[in-house]
Amino acid sequence: MTEEWHLDNERIRSFVDTVDEAADTHEEIPDLLAALRDPFRDLLTDDDWLPEPYDGLVPDGYDDKGEMGRDIAQWLLYRRPEKLTMFTLVLPPGVETPVHDHLAWGLVGIYSGTQTEDFYRRADDEDNHIGHADLEHLRTEEVERGDFYELIPPNNDIHKVRTSSDVPSVSVHLLGADVGCIQRHQFDPDDEFVELFQSHYTNVRCERSLSPPDNHGHSHSHQH
Q: How many domains does the chain have?
């Protein structure tokens, strides 16, 4: 399966190798993520591997910004199509994402700046892609560099983030799906509404729009 290295240096290659080794050893997602906690935290606090533009905002004049938000950059770093992605999400000060889900297991953590995160869950029994959706607000967290959380849908799958620092926030995402190119869900908690959206990547176009995955639970299909 073809790998794409949009950021290619020794540090990111070493981390992806660590992910592969852990995936070969741990079939269940909770065990895999537990094995990656320390390596991921080390990556978040390493100053030397994430150069421009991957820690920056969208370029001036860039107009294909996807549906996450016009001022939000989503830089693809690494992709193993439909299996594994790494990307950064960069939000200007005060900017907030829509409430959205991920539909994939993974790790999400802060590389620079600070964020306020609000987590939700669906309070109804429906699994519809568009229409009514009743969300329950679970908690609000203030996160800073080195903080991260484990994503095992439905746990921690629905959230919104806002940059609370006076500089842009940069978060690093390791996810078990091509999250920028799949159709995911965007929610309006006040109007109790859900619809499909696609976040895209700032530096790479999606050749096709992928349907929401049927299985994003507690085991992985990992090929390398």
A: 1
